[in-house]
Amino acid sequence: QVQLVESGGGLVQTGGSLRLSCAASGRTFSRYVMGWFRQAPGKEREFVAAITSYGGNTYYADSVKGRFTISRDNAKNTVYLQMNSLRPEDTAVYYCAVHRGGSYYDSVAYDSWGQGTQVTVSS
Predict the structure, then answer these.
(1) By C-alpha distance, which of 37, 33, 10, 43 is closest to 114?
(2) Using one digit for the tens of pLDDT, what is the confidence trace for 7-18?
(3) CB of 90 closer than 8 Å to CB of 119
């Protein structure tokens, strides 16, 4: 079972940037498609971005396209989410997870969720 630990969240002003990290345990990290999701209070968990096992392909929600960048370093067992031009509507708890099959955009296709990291964007 892969264990994931997110970090890098915090409070930032509108227009600012943050870089989230997701560190994974285990020696098979490089095999996995990884995803980032977020959940705001009172809302469903929503897809943010995904990256294939060796980083050849990336996928983004329309709401973050052009502002967020997902990347990975398989030597460090870590996936990143660089978030630029942040907006108040980006405020949420951000989670990373391991894709197990099915649509990259659907949370039910993922497991091994981390504990999440809070991102708050002030207006």
Answers:
(1) 37
(2) 999 999 999 999
(3) yes
